């Protein structure tokens, strides 16, 4: 038995896809054709069986957990005799570059808004908390984008603690994959949602994983339920290259695109460049900084070929 398997057996309940799919049986949630069309709009490559087999049971699990947390809050507030502050339930989604965190997050957001107990579900990505490109260049971090030191962790911690404290409006900076940079002067406002989903490479990282000060609190201290989306590195690299080729035909053709000069490359040359970026930046970041955080998650979703989840591991 590998060390990984041993850790998984000790910490997690494993579910094969079909076992997991059965756990949606009592989901009192039916999706209309219209809802399904909306979900397709998030990513047309996502199969509908993925939604019913994986995401509906997951939304049921999350709904039960949110309910339990809300009940605990009611008891505490009754005991303290105070009006409850409106604090969101926070779900984090971690995993490699190109594993599909943002797609997973958007599907969950869409499904969770259907539950009457928590209709307002906001979503942010930690990409917005990367230092701006000029700052990364100044610090010599262009080959370390996505590594712990490339994020403004102080700003991210201030953001999440303000949201969790129930502040009425908290802003998050926005990131563009087209300009490869933070979007100047544009913010997303988080106004007391019922649930906040926060997705990013670094949401399970602690100071111990990097040179960051270990005495500070971590994102996880403010998270109620954490998910790690997992896949073999071989598949991840393929998905990264496929996305790079897709962007080259679309977003890279915009003048403002950081990769505009790549837009006329042949498939072969573009594949070579994407493969090099993976091998020099995203692959090492996965091995050094992301994968070691996997077993901190409450739930691990393991993807196989074509982005299909073949196993789910749930913390005991
Ligand atoms: N469930 C899915 N089915 C099919 N394709 C998917 C699925 N999830 C993601 N993809 C594809 O995989 C690629 C990566 O997805 P996505 O952009 O969601 O990843 P990410 O983890 O958020 O990446 P990054 O960290 O770089 O922002 C995209 O090309 C996306 O279309
Ligand atoms: C923005 C991140 C860090 C995470 O989404 C990633 O997409 C990225 O830009 N990585 C750096 C190497 C690359 O260009 O893929």
Automatic annotation (TrEMBL):
<dbReference type="InterPro" id="IPR006083">
    <property type="entry name" value="PRK/URK"/>
</dbReference>
<comment type="similarity">
    <text>Belongs to the prokaryotic pantothenate kinase family.</text>
</comment>
<dbReference type="Pfam" id="PF00485">
    <property type="entry name" value="PRK"/>
</dbReference>
<protein>
    <recommendedName>
        <fullName>Pantothenate kinase</fullName>
        <ecNumber>2.7.1.33</ecNumber>
    </recommendedName>
</protein>
<keyword id="KW-0963">Cytoplasm</keyword>
<keyword id="KW-0808">Transferase</keyword>
<keyword id="KW-0547">Nucleotide-binding</keyword>
<keyword id="KW-0173">Coenzyme A biosynthesis</keyword>
<dbReference type="InterPro" id="IPR004566">
    <property type="entry name" value="PanK"/>
</dbReference>
<dbReference type="GO" id="GO:0004594">
    <property type="term" value="F:pantothenate kinase activity"/>
</dbReference>
<feature type="binding site">
    <location>
        <begin position="95"/>
        <end position="102"/>
    </location>
    <ligand>
        <name>ATP</name>
    </ligand>
</feature>
<dbReference type="InterPro" id="IPR027417">
    <property type="entry name" value="P-loop_NTPase"/>
</dbReference>
<keyword id="KW-0418">Kinase</keyword>
<feature type="domain" description="Phosphoribulokinase/uridine kinase">
    <location>
        <begin position="90"/>
        <end position="244"/>
    </location>
</feature>
<keyword id="KW-0067">ATP-binding</keyword>
<comment type="pathway">
    <text>Cofactor biosynthesis; coenzyme A biosynthesis; CoA from (R)-pantothenate: step 1/5.</text>
</comment>
């Amino acid at each position: 038995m590998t060390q990984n398997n041993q850790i998984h057996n000790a910490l997690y309940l494993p579910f094969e896809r079909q076992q997991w799919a059965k756990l949606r049986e009592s989901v009192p949630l039916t999706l209309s054709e219209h809802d399904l069309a909306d979900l397709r709009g998030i990513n047309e490559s996502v199969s509908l069986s993925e939604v019913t087999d994986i995401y509906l049971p997951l939304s049921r699990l999350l709904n039960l957990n949110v309910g339990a947390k809300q009940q605990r809050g009611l008891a505490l507030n009754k005991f303290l005799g105070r009006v409850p502050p409106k604090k969101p339930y926070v779900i984090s989604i971690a995993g490699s570059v190109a594993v599909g965190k943002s797609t997973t997050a958007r599907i969950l957001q869409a499904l969770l808004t259907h539950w009457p107990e928590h209709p307002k579900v906001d979503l942010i990505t930690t990409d917005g908390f990367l230092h701006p490109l000029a700052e990364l260049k100044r610090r010599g971090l262009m080959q370390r984008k996505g590594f712990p030191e490339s994020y403004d962790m102080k700003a991210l911690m201030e953001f999440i603690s303000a949201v969790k404290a129930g502040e009425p409006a908290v802003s998050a900076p926005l990131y563009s994959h087209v300009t490869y940079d933070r979007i100047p002067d544009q913010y997303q406002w988080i106004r007391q949602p019922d649930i906040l989903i926060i997705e990013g490479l670094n949401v399970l990282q602690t100071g111990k994983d990097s040179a960051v000060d270990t005495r500070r609190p971590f994102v996880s201290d403010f998270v109620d339920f954490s998910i790690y989306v997992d896949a073999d590195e071989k598949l991840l690299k393929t998905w990264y290259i496929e996305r790079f080729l897709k962007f080259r035909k679309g977003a890279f053709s915009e003048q403002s695109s950081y990769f505009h000069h790549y837009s006329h490359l042949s498939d072969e040359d573009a594949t070579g460049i994407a493969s090099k970026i993976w091998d020099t930046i995203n692959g090492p970041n996965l091995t050094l900084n992301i994968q070691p955080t996997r077993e901190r998650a409450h739930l691990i979703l393991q993807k196989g070929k074509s982005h299909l989840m073949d196993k789910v591991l749930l913390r005991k």
